[in-house]
């Protein structure tokens, strides 16, 4: 087990290095292409510049191929030892996850997002044909999915055992049809919007003056985003698999003067309110890839992400592996923050399931040189705490300026090099409910419109109707 974990950590670390190298290559290519075409100085068409760009691209491709070959060898070794194809832990590092230009042709996000290099998203287009949500039509979301319950794994133990008997260790569950009691009554695209349950923290990022303060603000938003996303009775449920071309739109309104959560549809007494927009699309079905974009109304911060999930059967648990990254961009500083996300385990699937985040992630800003490495710790077999996380924040010189420890769904403690200590209790943060246009005004490709019959059947606990509606 320890050997498998060390190999897993090594491949995870290699993935982080490859992602960073690819962003470095694209930054180099962008800098070369920005040089003048003519003149006495260095030009973009100079042979040395073209050779440098080509060498960088070739080196990156070779590193990717070497990484893929090592992964295949590990999978073969795992198969020879255990008889399980692909191994239990390694298949999640798919080569496609390194492709940062995630926009497929003829998608809504292609029209909604303008990008010169494929790395940096500028703004959502002001085109009602693309993003048709009208601010006047949007209402605070009144859906309360916590009231929907079609039973737990314990209540359906016989069905669960029958289902698990068909699985093999390491089996990919992406395309497996699961029983209704496992479903969460919303789409995966909508689940990604949980990253903005605290839009007030997100909007504080570009207001910070120094690069260090901005990195710390990004970390604070990143770590507080996981709690609301994985809590309550649906923390272990499986959301609907989005269909190709499926869309989800929503927004949040944040009142700077209060902590009301922005739930009130009436106008704030101070009149100073900010809006954050979210748009998501399923851009690929095989492999399943979701893309989403977040932007403030005054366009001082945006986030562009492409994520693919894959689940594997691990015996008494299910491993959910997440590939892909997000790029948070601050236009006024021209800073890009490369963000990766942790994997997860759903433990105790035969009794009371619970979620455990795991793995190593990072946030990197190449322009300022600041970086943060996170470790989401799994609970040891004997003793230890659940949901533990540690992190180190480094400046451009490699010096540690802050250490973070605590629980991602509890209390987080930030200890800075100057002796300052900041404590954040994620359970006490105010939730900002998202705003959507009514279901009757949504297009046929929007998530809640597509899955409305399945959701209604889940609410009515109508198992037979769930099966018909899902088909």
List keywords for this structure.
17 strands; two-stranded antiparallel ribbon; alpha+beta; 13-stranded antiparallel beta sheet; 471 residues; single chain; 26% strand; globular
Q: What does the model show?
A:
By secondary structure, the chain is an alpha+beta fold. A hairpin with a 4-residue loop joins strand 7 and strand 8. About 13% of the residues have low confidence. The strands form three sheets. Strands 4, 5, 6, 7, 8, 9, 10, 11, 12, 13, 14, 15 and 16 form a 13-stranded antiparallel sheet that branches. Strands 1-17 form a two-stranded antiparallel ribbon. It has a two-stranded parallel sheet with strand order 2-3. Helix 1 runs antiparallel to helix 2 and helix 9 packs antiparallel against helix 10.
């Amino acid at each position: 087990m320890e050997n498998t974990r060390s190999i897993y950590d090594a491949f995870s670390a290699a993935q982080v290095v490859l992602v960073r190298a690819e962003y470095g290559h694209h930054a180099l290519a962008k800098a070369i292409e920005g040089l003048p075409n003519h003149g006495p100085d260095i030009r973009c068409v100079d042979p040395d510049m073209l050779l440098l760009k080509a060498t960088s691209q070739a080196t990156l491709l070779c590193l990717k191929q070497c990484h893929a070959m090592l992964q295949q060898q590990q999978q073969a070794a795992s198969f020879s030892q255990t008889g399980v194809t692909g191994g239990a832990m390694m298949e999640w590092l798919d080569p496609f996850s390194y492709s940062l230009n995630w926009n497929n042709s003829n998608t809504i996000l292609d029209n909604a997002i303008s990008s010169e290099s494929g790395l940096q998203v500028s703004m959502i287009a002001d085109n009602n044909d693309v993003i048709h949500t009208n601010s006047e039509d949007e209402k605070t979301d009144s859906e309360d999915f916590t009231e929907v319950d079609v039973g737990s794994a314990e209540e359906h133990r016989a069905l669960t055992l029958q289902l698990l008997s068909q699985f093999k260790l390491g089996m990919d569950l992406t395309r497996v049809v699961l029983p209704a009691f496992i479903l969460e009554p919303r789409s995966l695209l909508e689940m990604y919007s949980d990253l903005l349950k605290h839009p007030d923290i997100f909007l504080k990022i570009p207001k910070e003056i120094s690069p260090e303060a901005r990195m710390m603000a990004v970390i604070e938003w990143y770590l507080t985003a996981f709690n609301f996303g994985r809590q309550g009775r649906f923390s272990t449920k499986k959301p609907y698999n989005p269909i190709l071309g499926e869309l989800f739109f929503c927004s949040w309104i944040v009142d700077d003067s209060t902590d009301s959560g922005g739930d009130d549809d009436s106008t704030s007494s101070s009149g100073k309110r900010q809006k954050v927009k979210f748009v998501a699309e399923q851009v690929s079905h095989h492999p399943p890839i979701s893309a989403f974009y977040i932007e403030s109304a005054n366009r001082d911060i945006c986030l562009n992400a492409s994520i693919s999930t894959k689940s594997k059967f691990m015996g008494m648990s299910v491993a959910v592996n997440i590939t892909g990254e997000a790029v948070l961009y601050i236009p006024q500083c021209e800073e890009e923050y490369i963000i990766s996300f942790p994997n997860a385990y759903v433990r105790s699937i035969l009794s009371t399931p619970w979620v455990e985040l795991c793995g190593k992630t990072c946030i990197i800003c190449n322009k300022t040189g600041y970086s943060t490495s996170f470790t989401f710790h799994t609970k040891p077999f004997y003793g230890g705490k659940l949901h533990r996380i540690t992190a180190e924040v480094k400046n451009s010189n490699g010096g540690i300026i802050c250490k973070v420890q605590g629980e991602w769904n509890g209390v987080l403690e930030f200890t800075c090099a100057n002796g300052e200590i900041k404590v954040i209790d994620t359970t006490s943060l105010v939730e900002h409910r998202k705003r959507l246009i009514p279901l009757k005004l949504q297009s046929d490709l929007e998530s809640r419109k597509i899955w409305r019959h399945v959701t209604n059947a889940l609410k009515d606990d109508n198992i037979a109707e769930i099966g018909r509606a899902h088909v």
